[in-house]
Amino acid sequence: MNLPIKIISTDFDGTLFAEFENPPIPKHLLKMIADLQARGAKWVINTGRDMSSLMEALARSHVEEKPDYLVLVEREIHCHKEMQYVGLDDWNSTCHREHAELFVRVRQDLPRLVSWVESQYKATIYEDPYSPFCLIAQNNGDADAIHAYMEDYCKEVPNLQVVRNDVYARFAHTSYNKGTALAELGRRLGIAAEHIFAAGDHLNDIPMLHQRYARYLTAPANAIPVVKELVRSQNGFVSELFQGHGIAEGLKFHLEKSGVNHYQF
Hints:
Elements (H helix, E strand, L loop, with lengths): L6 E4 L16 H12 L3 E5 L4 H10 L8 E4 L3 E6 L2 E4 L1 H32 L3 E5 L2 E6 L3 H15 L5 E6 L2 E6 L4 H12 L6 E4 L16 E4 L5 H9 L3 E2 L4 H15 L8
Protein name: Haloacid dehalogenase domain protein hydrolase type 3
InterPro entries: HAD-like_sf, HAD-SF_hydro_IIB, HAD_sf
Organism: Pedosphaera parvula (strain Ellin514)
């Protein structure tokens, strides 16, 4: 395969997928990705969603193209095999074990964390299979303040980080994020960062939007300012188009800059 881009890593919500657009994922972007897959490139949806939520959204969007890999909840890796997605057991089991060990400490401090948030803000706090402390703030201003408090708490607990997207936040282990999962896929496939494309729009995408993980970086017009600044600072492409349209433009830009005319495929 002589393509400069051999792995395409796309965030889902706000990057690939726009809930209220019709279609939610631009057909020309899906065709471009499918054409690149036919030439040997691997497509990874790198998302904060879990399996059921992502599959439901893809089905509603009538997406026929199948990602070769999924990175779910910013940590679990799954490979498409024989019409289904199969977890990479060694990576996922280690990930689950290290999170479980880390969260023993967090659970001890839950009363303090919950009490502080509830005394200051009207936010929804809950536990799910991926974090003992998950949060939905009423607005981004509240989310910013709670995020800062959660980050201060992380300084007390080794290997703990906050994963944030819009008004949603949860805790996770620092060894597992969109960037480290993408690096693991590159390692398994024997593909270096210089042949990887990554696109995202929000805070939880930042870990993969670094050239140590992906040479070809893109952000759509709807990306938050800190993401745009990060991408620009590394000679990436920031589109003036929104969501998937911006990602298609970024993919085309990087391919053509590398000498691959989009009409060639």
